[in-house]
Every structure is written in C-alpha cells, then in structure tokens.
Amino acid sequence: MWVVRPAQPDDLGSILQIVRTRGRGLSSTLPRDRHALDERIALSRRSFAGQLSSEQFSTYGNGRFMFVLENTEHRKICGVSAIDSRAGNGEPFYSYRRDCLIHASRELGISRRVEVLFPSHAITNRSLLCGFAIEAELVGTPAFQLLSRARMLFIASHRHLFADEIAVEIQGLQQPDGQVPFWDSLGRHFFNMDFKTADEYSAKLSKTFIAELMPPSPIYLSLLSEEAQRAVGQAHRAAEPACKLLESEGFAPGCYVDIFDAGPVLEARTDQLNSLRSSRTKVLDSNDHTGGPDYLLAAGDGIRFRATLGPAKEETGRAATSGDARERLNCRAGDALCLANLIDESAVC
Amino acid sequence: MLIIRPLQNTDLDALYKMTQEAGKGLTSLPADRELLQRKINRARASFEGRCEPEASLYLFALEDTDLQRCVGISGIEARVGRDEVFYNYRVSTLVNASRELDVHVRTPTLNLSNDMTDTSEICSLLLSASHRGGGNGLLLSRCRFMYLDDFRSNFSEKIFAEMRGVSDGEGRSPLWDALGSKFFDMEFSEADVLSALGNKSFIAELMPKYPIYIPMLPESAREVIGRVHQNTEPALSMLQAEGFNYNGLVDIFDGGPVVEAFIPGIRTVRASFTRPMELLEGPASLDVPVSERVMVSNRAFADFRVTTIPAAWVTPDSVQLPADVAAALRVKAGDELRLAPLKDLSPNGPRDEAEPEQTKFNRPLREE
After folding, report:
1. How is residue A136 annotated by DSSP?
2. CA within 13 Å, CB half, B15
C-alpha cells in the first residue's frame, strides 16, 4: 500500500534516482545534484518541523516542503512532490504574462491586436506546487492522485503556512528530439546554449539566476517562430495527466507562462481548491472499517504528516478506517483524520 | 550654365516629370502634383521668411539655363519632429554575461527613438537622368552646406541625412517584411507611399514600441540593418567624404542608416573661403573638367544662387566672373562671394556619381 510522508535524509538515493531518470520531466524544481538535494531535504525537514532559522524564514517564508510516495510493502520510494510556501523562495519568480496591446491609428482607420509577452514577477510569493515526479507505470493510478493531492490535504490542515493564491508550472512543449521550440526561438539567442544545457544550469544554480539573464523587455509574439508561437501555453504531452488532475482540483491556466519553454502556469485561489473545499476533518474511531471504496486519508501535524489511501466510514464528527490505514497514518483513536473522496480516474486520465 | 536657385512655382512641371522618371525605384517620392505643389509653397514661404525658421523647408532647384528648366532638386528641412513625431530605431547592444555560466552574449537591439527631433535634415535630392555626371549631383548636394553655414542660426548645429535602405527590384524591403509587416498589413512600397504623403508618424504609431532583439529576426532582415540601397552608395560615400558618419540610427521601415555631421566640421564648410568679386573681361570658357571647378555662392538667404566656375578664375584676392555668370548669380563687382571645391581633392573621395544620389524624400508634409 501507499503512504505519502515528508522526505527524510535516507530517502536521498531513491529521490535522486527518480529525479535523474525523469530527467527533463522535472525541469529544475528539484536538484539533481546529491549535495544540493541533501540540503533541500534538510530544509524540508526543518520546514515541516517549524524550525527554520530566522534567516531561512526571511528567505523561504514558511518553508519548502518535500513529500515522498512510499510503497509500504517494499519500503520503496516511487515518487516525490513538493510545495514551496512562497514562489521564488525570496527571489523574484519570473514568468511571461501573455497580454495584448491594440496598435491603432485614428488617422489611418487601422486597429490591430498585438500579442506581447511581458516579463512578470506576479507569481512571486504565491504558494507553488512543484517537484512532482513519479515512476512512469504509476501515472494515472490512485497512487498518482495520492502523491499530488496529499499536498492539498497538507495545505488544508496547515492553511496558515500558505498564501491565498497558489500556482503550479506545467512543463512546456518539447519535440521528440528534445528541442524546445520556444527556447530555440527566444532564450537560445541570449545564452548560446541549447535548452538541455540551460536546464542543467537552472537545476544547479537557480531558476531565477538564469531568468535574470533573459531579455528584460517584452517580446512580440509575432516575431517568434511559428513553432514557438504555437508552443505558448501548451503543456508537454508527458505532463498532461498531472495537468488534468490539477484542473480537476480547480487549477486553471491564466495569462502566465514559463519563460524558458512557455509551458502554462496554472493558478487557483487556495481556499477554492477542490481538496480544500470538499475534505473534512473528523475524530478517528477505534473500531475497524474495511471494504468499500478507498478515500484519501491524511493525519498528523508537521513532520508527522501522513497521507494514504484507505477505506472509510463517516458519521457526524467521527470516522473509522482500517487498522492498516491507521498504522500507515501512524495515528490512533481520538486523533484528527482528514478525508477526501478520490476523483474518478477516468475523469483524470 | 547650371545654376542652383530657390525652387519656384514654375518648376512644378519639371519636378513632376522628374518624379515620374524616377518611377518605382523611388517610391518615397511619388509623382503627385498636389503634394509637390505643397512642397513648393512651403519652400517659397521659407525663403521669403513667411514661416518660422524652425518650420522651414528650403528646396533648391538646379536649373539648366540653356533649357530654362529645373533638372534637379535638393533640400534642407530646418527641424524634424515638430508637428509630427520623428521615429528611428537606435541599434544598441545588450550584453548578457555570467561568469558562472561562462556566457558573454552581445545582443544587438533596435530601440525606438526620437533622438533626431529638432535636428536639421538634408533631404529630397533628385537629379534628372539627362544631367547625371559632370559633378551636377555634387553641386546639388554640396551647395546646401554653404547655405547651412551662412545661415547657421536657422539650423541645428548637427545635420543628418536618412539614407535609403535595401529593397529589391519589386520594392520589397527585407526588414519591412520581417518586422513592419507583422504589425501593419501592407507592402513596403505602399507604406512608403503613405509615408511620403505625410503619414509616416501615423504608421510609426502602429509599429512596435518595445525593443526588438535583432537575433530574433531572419537573416535576410538582420543583414540589411544599417545598409544602404545599392543606388544610394555613391550618395553615402559623398556624405562620408564631407565628414558625415553613421550615428547608430536606422529607418524604422527599411533599416537604412542615418548619417550625421556638425556644421563646422563639414568638409565643404571648412574648405570654403570668401573673395570679393571682380568682373572678368574678355573671352571666358566654363568648359573645364569637374576636378578644376569650384562652387561659388552669392550668400543670399532669399535668392540663394550657386554655380561652378573654373578654379583658374579664383585669384589670391578676388574671384573673377564674366558678366553672364555674375548676372546668373545676381552679383556685382565688390560683392563678397563664398567659394568651395566641388570635388574632393583626396584620391579616396567619391567617384563622380554615375547614379543619382538618392536621399529620402519622406518628410511628412504640413498643410499650409
């Protein structure tokens, strides 16, 4: 069975493997370097424990949270996901805002709509879902949903740690040969390097570091290659299942796109997320309940947070689940249990 | 005899014919009688002091006195960007550097600029095909520098010229196709005609205001930025010989360069000198090679006249003119005349142009 819990130091090797094999699928949101990832896990631990130093607090806000998906039978890590409490982590978070200007001349009786990409920091300091990666064969399964939505349940039970608005960047269009049309038409000119190289730097340094080298002025869409124009706001095929799941949560593409590959930035009001609106917190009963459909279940504060899939029986103010689920959640009768219905898989994948 | 004098109403027919003759290759000067008449009106008002110095347009005719016909014109716009907005792109450099990434990339960028506002422009040079060669193009162009210097207070100290950019035989401009046409659904030649009719600043208002990163343009467009049309090369070398230099600005439509110079530094201004006139008695032949001729000006504001004479007529303390030349210049013995070499003395100077010099004739007209 599956459990989602905060990443811990001995998960390092497993996470590295997932991050590295997923390669570009992850973009730069999790480090692919052992040392950097180790530090990130340590930062995540302190964030869950509410033990950030004042310096860390001023940079990362309430912190950067990293979760792993563990197969409890094989004690194997099969996925990873994360939340940054503030996008940009103390630095500007760069996006392009797709906007339009009307170029009009009264004298000539002409009016034209001109599409422009404006550099924007608007997403900065919103909360950000990031770092999602899962073994390919699990895509579309309940475990996939658990890994992604456990973050929403964590937010639901730790609402004060997060901003009122939340966003997630979806990987943009990439051709089978690895070329990224948007990068080739724009970013490449300013770096003299292909997307893969820039992406590696981005993972090693910071995304903001690379973003600051991008052209400071707005970009006219009509001056990009046709392939690049078409790529603006388009999700990578491999990111579609994740994208659909987030849309069922209430995320929607707005006017922001990634500055490197023009993938869409999905946005939502935190309190309007489906998991936040539909989840309910009950007192856990001591009696066992087995059978019936699985629910998303979550329990535990901070570093003790766990989420899993399991059966549930709800009564007013109280709920019961199986002994196995209670064990996975590491909780007992009288503890608070957060429940949410699974989304119909067919609607997601 | 060929003489420079202010453009007159009676020149309309000849001017119209010349613009027709120039045809498709010079769409920036359309054969439009009404437009040409307005230009003449404005030039008349300028020479006669009926309009503000800053709003003036001085147009000079090259008259063949034997034919009694105007065979070329050239002009000076006293100030640009007064009634309309005068646009150029400035070609500037954006450097993108990072030691950590081992990146040092220079990105040439086009920035929209109004930097030429309130500057005097030399413009509107057109020479009839029948009179090309023989230094006539040089005379049409260079006579203006003597006028600029003699009436310096009417002009800015900096003078510029917009040079025609690259376009093909069909009048297609690679820069327009890659840039302007994306914002303005029109062929370059049409836009150019609209410009000449006085709509350039309107068109400019439809053009992109934010910087254009040149590497994002196709190669065909990149390579014409700052380059002149093949037919304009002689004009460019003539102006370069006068001390004009590319100032980093280009035309927003075709990418043709802007060249500029300061009046005191212009070669013709520096090489010029004055002599009192004396009447030359006896037989005198004007028929000497271009290299042995000098320009002579009467230094008159309202009835500015210039012609070329054999250098031999200039003595250490006078310039000797036969009666017919003196009459054509409207000068008399004792008048202080201004002289300057017609041709460059340096071997690297411009060749005697086979093709006409073509600067742009695209200043929006003002209703008068």
Report:
1. G
2. 25
How far apart are the two ends of chain A, measured CA to CA in Å?
21
**By the 8 A CB rule, do A40 and A206 touch?**
no
B194 reaches A (C-beta below 8 A): yes
B158-213 confidence digits (pLDDT tens): 999 999 899 888 878 999 999 998 888 778 877 777 777 777 777 777 889 999 99
Q: How far is CA A276 from CA A252, B72, B179, in A?
A: 16, 81, 49
Q: Which burial class, exposed, middle or buried, applies to A341 when counting CB atoms under 10 A from its CB (0-12, 13-18, 19+)? A: middle
Beta bridge partners of A81: A67
Of A116, A192, A220, the CB nearest to B103: A192
Is B107 in Cβ contact with A107 (below 8 Å)?
Answer: no
Reference B302, options B119, B58, B14, B2; nearest CA is B58
Q: Are strands B306-310 and B293-297 parallel, antiparallel or unpaired?
A: antiparallel
Residue B259 clears pLDDT 70, i.e. is over it: yes
Please tell me if residue A105 touches chain B, with a CB cutoff of 8 Å: yes
* Blockwise average pLDDT, block size 10, chain A, 349 residues: 97 91 58 90 97 95 97 95 95 94 85 94 96 91 96 97 97 90 94 84 77 89 96 93 94 96 97 96 94 95 97 94 96 95 72
At B368 the three-state DSSP class reads coil
Residue A65 C-beta-side C-alpha neighbours within 13 Å: 29
Active-site positions of A? 236
Ramachandran area for residue B102 (φ above 0: left; ψ -120 to 50: alpha; else beta): left
CA B178 to CA A222: how far, in whole Å?
Answer: 10
Mean pLDDT of chain B: 88
Q: What is the pTM of this model?
A: 0.86
Question: Among B96, B203, B210, whose Cβ lies nearest the Cβ of A213?
Answer: B96
Of residues A112, A190, A218, nearest to B206 (C-beta): A112
Q: Among residues B349, B23, B278, B309, which one has the least CA distance to residue B169? A: B23
Which of the residues B229, B275, B305, B343 is marked catalytic?
B229
What is the value of ipTM here, to two decimals?
A: 0.85
B211 CB within 8 Å of a chain A CB: yes
d(CA A61, CA B36): 70
The verdict on B190 touching A (C-beta cutoff 8 Å) is no
Kindly write down the DSSP assignment for every residue of A208-229, as one continuous string: HHHHTTS-SS-EEGGGS-HHHH
Angle separating helix axes B136-150 and B233-242, nearest 10 degrees: 40
pLDDT of residue B232: 87
3-state secondary structure of B278: strand
